[in-house]
Amino acid sequence: MNLPTDLLRSFITVADLGGYTRAGEVLNRSQPAVSLQMRRLEELVDAQLITHNGRQLNLTEAGEILSAYARQILHLNDGAIAHFRPIDVSGTIKIGLPTDYAVAYLQEVVAKFALEHPDAKLEIYCDISANLLNGLHGNQIDLAVALVAEDKRQYLVRVWEERPVWAVGKNSNVDKEVMVPLVSHFENCEYRKRMTAALKNHDKQWRHAYTSPDISGVQDAVEMGLGLTALTRATLTNNMRVLDETDGFPELEKLRIGLFYKLPRMPEAGRELANLLIGNIDRATDGHFKRSAHPQQKHS
Fold first, then answer.
1. How far apart are the first and last CA of the chain?
2. 166 near 227, Cβ under 8 Å?
3. Nearest to residue 281, comparing CAs of 252, 257, 254, 253?
4. C-alpha angle 175-181-185 in degrees, rounded to nearest 5
């Protein structure tokens, strides 16, 4: 059995725009034609994909799982088509980059794209992942690289996994018996959640010694000995050292780093940039990341 890409594209467009009528306007199809496509897709996978609560459209659990596969299939399809025909790399792309994950590296990739495609106008927003995803949902951002939270999986196209590590200043002493001084971003930061959960599970007390909205502030505070934090290996500096269970610090839960965008809103230039980001993140992982095959499937 094959899943036709036209059905998958209609399905994602309905999910992203929240309705058959709006999807039909984008796809140049009538509302009944889009509804018929959704019924055909549900017949092919033998599962209900969409539910309705009044005017509110929601994906079922099966719909969320198929959405993850559909986005990957359509991304590959669009990349293959773009390879064999000229791409209109123009227009404005609003990009969200996280302050808490290798932001300098991601900025270099985006800057390279801007130099190679001067007709594309880029607007770059750096913020914590939760705010970026809110911006994506509110149409203030077209494409975002962000940490994946369990309740923010919509529009997820690709995901990578990495386990963060405990980091402390290179010359800092760590006393296992005292309250742990944490350096972190604000309350809804995924790193902060992992640190406090790990410490709580091992009956260790902590205090928030330093809070900063950006990665450079966190790095500086750790280097100066104000406390310790959780970082990816990509954001460790030469003035830090890693702590592990022999130092009294439990293993941290993995992070999931995702690429998000709304398919119907993404111009060709944005898809070209998405391909560039995916290729560069794949190459830069160098064994530190594990790419997930099922980006929207729940993990225990």
1. 31
2. no
3. 257
4. 145
Element (H, E) at 242: strand 240-243
Range(s) of the domain holding residue 272: 91-161+255-291
CA 236, CA 165: separation in Å to the nearest integer? 9
Mind listing the pLDDT tens digit for each residue in 187-233? 778 889 999 999 999 899 999 999 988 888 999 999 999 999 999 88
Q: Is residue 296 part of a domain?
A: no
Distances (CA, A) of 268 to 81, 264, 280: 11, 11, 19
- Do 132 and 237 reside in the same domain of the chain? no
Residue 294 has pLDDT above 50, yes or no: no
Question: Tokens in use for 110?
Answer: 């985006």
Alpha helices, H only, 153-291: 190-201, 215-223, 268-285
* E strand or H helix that includes residue 33: helix 31-45
